[in-house]
Amino acid sequence: MHEAVPFQGRLFSCMLGAHQRVSDNAFVQAHVAAMLRNFLLAAFVLCAGTACAGTAHMGDRVDLRGTLTLRGNEPFTYPVVSDGKQMWQLVGVDHATAGRLQNRVVHVTGRVAETAGPSRLPALQVDSVTATDEGTAR
């Protein structure tokens, strides 16, 4: 005759299998959490390094090429240069020169200065500003 397996033994063996699956699941969850934590840390470090990489600091020499425009209302206008990505306020450019070069593509050299006035744009103490051969910006 067949030997009967006690009901309690079968129940207990099923419970052992479930326990094993739970511990494997916990093991996988712990590793996934650790990998996610490491990934987030690496992403943060990469983003922090990238954010600081292109930042100009006071006194740094800068060469800009972009469109010179006058912003503000008369008599409180100020010249800015925009290259399509960033806009700089020009400090040290007389009003006549700015008016003559308005809406033209210019090449500007200078040093990063303290942010000037209410515009809160990054400021550039201009050493030279010249119109390029590209002519008028569109």
Features of the shown structure:
33% strand; 2 domains; alpha+beta; 39% helix; 2 helices; 138 residues; OB fold (Dihydrolipoamide Acetyltransferase, E2P)
Description:
The chain has two domains: 1-55; 61-136, OB fold (Dihydrolipoamide Acetyltransferase, E2P) (Beta Barrel). 39% of the residues lie in helices and 33% in strands. It has helices at residues 7-53, 95-101; strands at 61-71, 78-82, 87-91, 104-113, 123-136. A five-stranded mixed β-barrel has the order 1-2-3-5-4. The longest helix has 47 residues, at 7-53.
Top CATH class of the largest domain: Mainly Beta
- Order of the strands making up the biggest sheet: 1-2-3-5-4
Question: How many domains make up the 3D coordinates?
Answer: 2
Taken as a percent bin, the fraction of beta residues is 25-35%
Helical/strand content category:
alpha+beta
- Classify the helix fraction into a percent range: 25-40%
- Count of extended strands: 5
Mean pLDDT: 79
Low-confidence segments, given as residue ranges, are: none
CATH architectural type of the largest domain = Beta Barrel
By CATH, the superfamily of the largest domain comes out as: Bacterial OB-fold
CATH topology of the largest domain: OB fold (Dihydrolipoamide Acetyltransferase, E2P)
Oligomer: single chain
Can you summarize the main beta sheet?
A: 5 strands, mixed, barrel
